[in-house]
Amino acid sequence: MMRSWPVIAAMVLVLGGLSVVAGYEMAPPGAAAWREIAWPFPRDGWPAGRAFRCGSAECGGDVEVYLRPKLGFCNCDSGVADDDEVDRVADVDMISPRFVPLNAGDIVRVADMPGRIRVYDLDGHRTAIGIAVSHRCDLMAVAAQGRGDVGRVQAATLKFLEGREVSAWMIAAMEGR
To answer: DSSP string spanning 73-98?
Structure first.
């Protein structure tokens, strides 16, 4: 009986090591690049949301994403209707009061919620992304910022929002959980 303990301990170590390697290899790409940060904005009429930063090469540099639900704040019939609404509700104004749309927005679907996305210039050096999606009479506001290429900042933001954990949080938050 005494001789079997070293064999059992060795098996536990080998299986534990294999599960760590499998977990690392099976993790979705980009998942480790993002980390949650403190909500950087002052209090307003809405509760603070969640904020995330990606500073790795996977995101092409620093990209920050801020998201929060605004329950009861959306048109129950039409959802997010137009670009003017995105300008008003997506919280881009919290990043900078001087934001200039670069073009017309597009239809987007995030966490299975329909809405609109729009790209902004903040100061000639930073890009902002505003996203407003709706579920029933509730709104999820998403703002993102980064330096450099507009397409890279938008792609990094949308890829992050497609992640399982963030999508699940957005859906739960929209349902008041």
So the answer is: -SBTTTBS-SHHHHHHHSSHHHH-S-
